[in-house]
Amino acid sequence: MMTMLLQWAPIAVSLLAVGIAFGMVRRERVARQALENKFAATEVVLKNARQQQESLSKQLTELRAGTLGMGQTLADMAQQLEALADRQGELAMQDPDGRLYSRASKMVELGADVNELMQECDLPKAEAELLLRLQQMHTHRRR
To answer: Is this model's pTM higher than 0.85 or not?
Structure first.
């Protein structure tokens, strides 16, 4: 029996070794498949991140362009406002009656009466009374 056991022992050991080898190969294949799946998932995540980065980059470019456009528009508007202010100043200087009425309006705000307006601003009585009434109406509306 011992001889028979010794004859079959190498075959049994060989079969056991082959079985272990097949098991290890199978485990390696499963591990490789899991690794490939993780790699594929990582590639998908990377692709999505790149698409999102491209989208954000486009949005940033659009925002920059819009900001530059708004800056130019604001600069143009500032120039126009400055030109209007200059023109307004020129018109105020050309209109002596306008300055006269501005002065009269300020006097009314400070409490001047009809006679003071007529003397200081050289206004007719009707215009002085009209300025006083307008100022009174304006004061009542504020309250």
So the answer is: no
